[in-house]
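Predict the 3D structure for this chain.
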Amino acid sequence: MSRRRLYLDRAPGEDRAVVTLDGRPERFLIERPSEPFDLALSSQWVGRVARIERGLASAFLDLGEGGEALLALTGDGKAVAEGAWIEIEITAEARRGKLALARMLGPSTGPARRLDRAKPLIDRLKAFAPGVAVIEGAAAREVADEAESEMLAIEHALPGGGSIAIEPTRALTAVDVDLGARGADARRAARQVNLLAIEHCARLLRLKGLGGLVVIDLVGAGHDGASLTAAATKAFAPDMPGVSIGPITRFGTFQIAIPRRWRPAAEILCDESGAITTVSLALRLLRAMEREGRADGGARILGYCAQDVGEAAKILAPALSDRIGARFDLILEPSRRREHLEVTRR
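Done. Predicted structure below.
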């Protein structure tokens, strides 16, 4: 029986929540004061129909203060008119280059506003495993660090050998399965690694917050379609409803469509090129400084970093002061590489 555990890491300037499945990270959520939690999944709003595009069967909604969402003109939505005020529910969070998606709840009156209260991160975490206790402290920090690292990785090792590489594009998410060194019986090894790849692919896609069309390039040929489809049905059950599993093609690819619901955490941590943002590096530095500060309550903590990282860390430094006091210094070095963070005690 699969077992899930919940972890909440309350760090300076950022809280991170993790769900693990049988000891491996399955969900990763981030909450930062600098990233307001707006247009969250299932949140309800009053918005104005700003523009209708009949050719796209969509309406663009103005939710106030720069917030926008896209409403599909289906069901009751077919009757909306430009300028109308309506109540909506967010069905998919905004992601880079894409608006949040909404469904219509009914007519309303202005002004634009949120109707429900934002759920605290701990409540959103508990919803993934009701009744399971939330673990905090040092154990949560370690699990969150591991989950963040795995979430950002492209290639992931499979138990017993082999690996999968997961790379999102604008059109789809490509998953490449590699056999690796798995014994002499190639056919049997290919079947084993394909089954493992499907199981771990489902978990990793949830961890990364990826959805839409997923194309898995399987190992070998002459696949057992029934076994692989059964494995996919089980592995992607937590993503239901809305998952569509296609047949294995003659090219050896397996196509699965998964509803997009959450904003990928990588969009918070990284810029459009995939590089870690300056703010994310500054928060890593503050976490490392907090760890050293708690390890030695009397030492002065020194954090060495690149110029831009240090400037960002200075803005976030009050969150560290609240935890270990003002006994730390940020040492900004213009020649230091951005990713090279160093923490010492004095």
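The chain has four domains: 4-37+118-145, 44-114, 153-258, 270-345.
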